[in-house]
Amino acid sequence: MHESINTNAITGLVLNIQHFCTHDGPGIRTTVFVKGCSIRCKWCANPESIHPKPELGYNPAHCIGESQCGRCLKGVCPESALFVAGSGDDKVEVNWDLCTNCGECISVCPPEALYLFGKRMTVDEVLDEVEQDSVFYRESGGGLTISGGECMLQPDFTAALLRGAHERGINTAIETACNVPWAFVEKVLPHVDVMLHDHKLTVPERHKKWTGVDNKRILENFKKAYETFPEIKFIARTPLIPGVNDDEEHIRSVLDFIRPYKNVIDYELLPYHRYGDSKYGFLGRKYEMADFQPPTEEKLSHLRAIIADAFGRNGSAG
Questions:
Q1: Which of 15, 49, 24 minimizes the C-alpha distance to 121?
Q2: How far apart are CA 312 and CA 30, in angstroms?
Q3: How far apart are the first and last CA of the chain?
Q4: In the chain, % of residues over pLDDT 90
Q5: Sign of the torsion formed by the C-alpha atoms of 183, 188, 189 and 194
Q6: How would you classify residue 314: left for phi > 0, otherwise alpha for psi between -120 and 50, otherwise beta?
Q7: Closest CA to 287 of 41, 82, 118
């Protein structure tokens, strides 16, 4: 038996709780996005999830300007990181080199142009919101998915969330790149029903070029997880980026890697999209993939046919 835990004492940094998700595991799910990531994918659609602490966001479209407001300019910022350029537009700008993400400016911004990415929450606070959708889980076979960022970078919080979900009769899943110490994986996976995990690139050098780290630890963790937790359903995935990893060689390499493990029940392709590129501006960053386009339907169909042929109709890799 598990020893009891005080779920009000365990907290984590939550980015967002998204309801009625249909692509984050089986059935209809509630996805809890947590802060902090250990890789730096150039195509990341959630740049606000990377930093492990609360982070200032600024949407200038919501700013009503110095003449109508200007409250954030009146000595609120201890670093004097907020200013008006004086070029005819009296909207506030942020000197991101000076900003320390302290959040002092947020409470004085009526239009909410300034806000924080990341909120500290207890396990019970999160699960109480997740449980509101329980009727949809029962009818669709869904449940709770924890994503990120990298959810296993907050191993105590993530494990407690998953365990608490099980105690409430809720199916659990995680989305992970698995670039974490094995001790973190060992703490989280005993409470996981489904693990969705990214095989981003096969060649270590190319993996490092596009994500900032090689894939040695990642692949070691995947293999060890398959072998240590045979009861978990694993779903391999590749975020498909044209010109980066949309080649047949990569897809077949992933299939070769997962083929020996019958608990890897599927391999999914996630077509590249640009839904998150505006967030980079809200964080004062530049999006490096602005010239990239989604993969063609012809390319997707070809690669998905290779995967379908490998798995067969019964969903087991052969």
A1: 15
A2: 30
A3: 37
A4: 89
A5: negative
A6: alpha
A7: 41
> In sequence order, what DSSP letters do the residues of 209-267 get, joined into one string?
HHHSS-SHHHHHHHHHHHHH-TTSEEEEEEEE-TTTT-SHHHHHHHHHHHTT-TTEEEE
Rg of the chain in Å (alpha carbons): 21
Selection from 179, 253, 186 nearest residue 212 by Cα: 179
- Quote the tokens at residue 143: 């449940």
Please give the Cα distance from 6 to 205 (Å, whole number): 44
Tell me which residue of 102, 116, 124 sits closest to 35, measured CA to CA: 116
Report the relative pairing of strands 11-21 and 29-34 from DSSP bridges.
antiparallel
Q: What is the C-alpha to C-alpha distance for residues 267 and 262, in angstroms, rounded to an integer?
A: 12
In degrees, rounded to 5, the angle at the alpha carbon of residue 133 between the alpha carbons of residues 44 and 32 is 25
What CA–CA distance (Å, rounded) separates 216 from 207?
10
Element (H, E) at 195: strand 194-198
Query: For the segment 100-145, what is each residue's pLDDT rounded down to a tens digit?
Result: 999 999 999 999 999 999 999 999 999 999 999 999 998 899 999 9
CA 218 to mean position of chain CA atoms: 16
65 prior amide bond cis, ω within 30: no
